[in-house]
Amino acid sequence: MPDILDYCKGRKAQTFKSGTVLIQEGGEEHKLFVLISGQVEIMRKDTQVSYVEEPGSMFGEMSCLLDMPYTATVKALSDVEAYVLDDAIGFLSSKPEIALEVASLLARRLYYTTSYLVDLQQQSAGRREDLDLVDKILAQLSQTPDEPKGKSR
To answer: By Cβ atoms counted within 10 A, which residue in 10, 66, 101, 133 is the most buried?
Structure first.
C-alpha cells in the first residue's frame, strides 16, 4: 500500500518554525495535517501525551471525522514541514486506501489506549476509586459516541 505522503503529492506543503502551534486544543478549523518532516509534540490539557517525528503522521483527523473541536494541541518542536488539508473529508474519502490508512491509525491508537487502561485497572486492584474511573473510560471506549446535538449524518 502506498504511503499517505504519496497521496499528498502535488499539494502545497507549508513550513512552521519551531515553537509554532499547528493545532490548538478546542479549535474548530477542521484542518488535517500530514507531517513531511520535523518533530511535534501532542499536548492535552498542558500534558504531553505524545511526541511524533514519523513522516506521514496525521494530526486533526479526529476533529474532522467527528465534526468536533480539536482534542489536543500540536506544537512544533523543530522546524516542521507539513501538508495542511482544508478539505479533510474530501481528501479522506477520495480513495479507499486513504480511509484504510486512517482506520489502521485509529485502530492502533485504540489498541494502545485500551491496553494502557487495562494495565492501569490491573495495577489499581484494591483501590476502588481508581478502578471506578478506569471502568468508566473502558465503558466509554466500547460505546458508539452520541451524535452531537443538532448534527445529522
So the answer is: 101
Span 111-132, average pLDDT: 74
What number is the average pLDDT over the span 97-107?
A: 88
Q: What nine digits make up the cell of 23? A: 493545532
Query: In whole angstroms, what is the distance from residue 41 CA to residue 73 CA?
Result: 8
- Report whether 95 contacts 103 (CB < 8 A): no
Q: Tell me whether strands 73-76 and 40-44 are parallel, antiparallel or unpaired.
A: antiparallel
Distance CA 127, CA 124 (A): 5
Report the C-alpha gap between 13 and 97 in whole angstroms: 21
Digit-coded pLDDT (tens) for 1-52:
468 999 998 999 999 999 999 999 999 999 999 999 999 999 999 899 889 9
At residue 84, the 3 state secondary structure works out as: strand
Strand bridging mode 80-85 / 13-16:
antiparallel
